[in-house]
Structure formats: C-alpha cells, structure tokens
Specification:
single chain, alpha/beta, two-stranded antiparallel ribbon
C-alpha cells in the first residue's frame, strides 16, 4: 500500500476505533458487560475518554478500587513509561508527562515507599528524559528517575516460555520493584505496525537489537512470559501518532483520541488499544502470539469492560 493510501486508511479507521471505545457505544463491551459506566463487578478493562488526562486517570483507577488495589503501603514501585525519544510531549512519541506525574502522586497516596521511573531510550537517554518532560514531572511529584545507560544495571534472566528470546539482560529495577506499572503511549511503529503495552517492555531490556534481528513480534511476545509482569497497564491514547512511528516525522499523521485504557491483562490492553487505533487486533502479530502463549486475551470477548467519560 502506498504511503498516502495507508495514511488515509488509518485515519479513517481510527475514527471507527474511537467510536468503538466511546462511552456512548456498546461495541467495546463484551456480552453481559452492562451499560456504559456501570459494572456489576471489578472490570477487566477500563476505557476513559476526556481531554483532562489527570482526571481521566483518577476516574480509571477509581473503577478498579483506586491505586490501593495495586500498591500497598511500604512497597516500592517502578513505573515504566515510553521515554525513548528526545522530542517534546506534543510529538506523541512518549508518554504524557502529565499522566506520569499523576501516576506517581497516586502511588504515594496509596502508601508507596519509593516510586522510580526509567526507560532504555533509542535517543541519548539524558536528552530523551529531559525533552519528553517526564524527568521533571516525575521529580516534581517526588519520584526518582533512574539512569539506564550502563550494562551493569542489567542482569541475565531466563525467559522460560520464550520461543526465540530464551534469555535477556533485564534492568535490576524491573526485577527488584514490589510493583510494576506499565505506562506506554499508543502509536504507530514501522516494524510491528503498533507500539503499545507489550512492546513498551522492550525498554527494560539491554539488547534491543536482538529483538530486531531475530524476530521482533515473537520476541515482544516472548518477554511477556517472563515471571515479572506489570500489575497494571495504563495506555496514553491522547494524541495518537498514526504514521511515521515510533519517533515521528514531519509528515506524521495524528488523531486526537483523548483516551486512557487501563487493565492488568497486557494482551487485552493491547487488543483494546488496537481498536482505539482503528484496527483489528489480529493485524498485529505479537498480540496473537501473546494470546497463544497464554499471557492474556487477544480479543475483548467475555471481558468485563467499563467505559467512562470525564
């Protein structure tokens, strides 16, 4: 497909995906999920629509019973954003710093002893940390921003369920934290088609080149079988990059979706994010691979999905 045709198709599909996630639509809710904004039990997944990302996070977490459901007093927390690119927040390549600040504050209100954030960026880490706005936002909220640049921070682990990625060097913070929160941005990716929650975990691994050289989709799925998984995934789908990802280009197309998607099932979260993007989750190989490997659900069928608006 030519670039112009691709962009046109994705832009149109994104509008359809937004309709599927909108509170006024029943398309996202699984049978028995109940009316919009009403859940008979704790939801499996929450989609919150609204321009105010801090208020959207507040409402999304409240649907799960608050951050206290995931973070207990005295625990250490690692928040893993997408902080891989030295571009301003408006570029849509990194997680919103407003969202990150609010996440850190919620963790401390839940009683966290320490909240740390890091990423292994593609651009120079100091530039990416600064230009993304995340470093300042995390520190302003009382959190710690950790360096990622030395291989000595990463330690070998076995990925017992991996088909290609059988072992990897993983940042010590990912292994040591009591609670892991995964906070990706939803965007286009030239290799996988989509970058979201599952792919965001590439940023805790030292050698990303192995993924690209041996089979990117399968390696992404393989890592999700590692025993340490995020307790909650919070997807920033505010201003979504639809082309030219993952860094963005002058010609990149965008769609303002004003969505947060939250859930503990990393595969289901990516499936919902694919719908928000305007695509069938089956278009992205790593989502189906994750489901086949037993990590989570690659569709929303049978899930209790709650749709909210702020």
């Amino acid at each position: 497909m030519k670039r112009r045709a691709f962009c046109t198709a994705v832009l149109g599909a994104a509008a359809t995906g937004l309709a599927a996630l909108a509170p006024s639509s029943l398309c996202l809710a699984a049978p028995g999920g109940g009316p919009a904004g009403v859940s008979p039990s704790r939801p499996d997944l929450v989609a919150v629509q609204g321009e105010n990302v801090a208020a959207a996070l507040d409402k999304g977490l409240a649907a799960f019973g608050g951050m206290e459901t995931f973070v207990k007093p005295g625990q250490t927390v690692l928040i893993k954003p997408n902080m891989g690119w030295a571009v301003a927040p408006a570029g849509g390549a990194n997680t919103s710093p407003v969202l990150m600040r609010q996440l850190v504050e919620h963790c401390f209100r839940a009683g966290a002893k320490k909240v740390t954030c890091f990423d292994n960026p593609c651009d120079h880490w100091r530039d990416a940390y600064r230009e993304s706005g995340i470093e300042a936002a995390v520190r302003d909220a009382g959190g710690v921003v950790a360096p990622p640049h030395s291989e000595s921070y990463y330690h070998p682990v076995s990925i017992l369920g991996g088909k290609i990625l059988a072992q990897a060097k993983v940042h010590e913070l990912y292994m040591e934290a009591d609670v892991i929160l995964n906070a990706p941005v939803l965007k286009h990716h030239g290799g996988t088609g989509l970058s979201c929650a599952m792919k965001n975990l590439m940023g805790v691994v030292w050698d990303r080149r192995f993924y690209h050289g041996r089979g990117l989709d399968q390696c992404i799925a393989d890592f999700t079988t590692y025993g340490r998984r995020p307790a909650l995934n919070i997807v920033d789908a505010g201003r979504v990059m639809l082309s030219g990802g993952p860094r963005g280009q002058a010609s990149s197309q965008y769609k303002k979706l004003d969505l947060l998607i939250l859930g503990p099932d990393i595969v289901a979260v990516d499936a919902a994010s694919a719908l928000a993007y305007g695509a069938n989750p089956g278009q992205f190989a790593y989502i189906g691979m994750g489901e086949k490997m037993g990590v989570g659900k690659g569709t929303l069928e049978g899930l209790n999905v709650q749709r909210l608006r702020v």
